[in-house]
Predict the 3D structure of the following.
Amino acid sequence: MALLITDECINCDVCEPECPNDAIAMGIDFYEIDPNKCTECVGHFDEPQCRQVCPVDCIPLHPDWVESKDQLMAKYLRLTAAKNG
């Protein structure tokens, strides 16, 4: 699954630089995660880094983007190939 930042976000700016896929960006009111880029850090880390640093615990799994670990790894491989291609 991709992750989702809820409206409990306080815009503390700590999650964005931690994302290895550049999936986090400022939205209209608070940070947002692009589910097409979010791999839950699969391929990079054992745990999602944004969740590790979030002081308000406002980053749950995105209910509309259900993905297996294999699908997340495939997305990671596509994203890294595009960066290096």
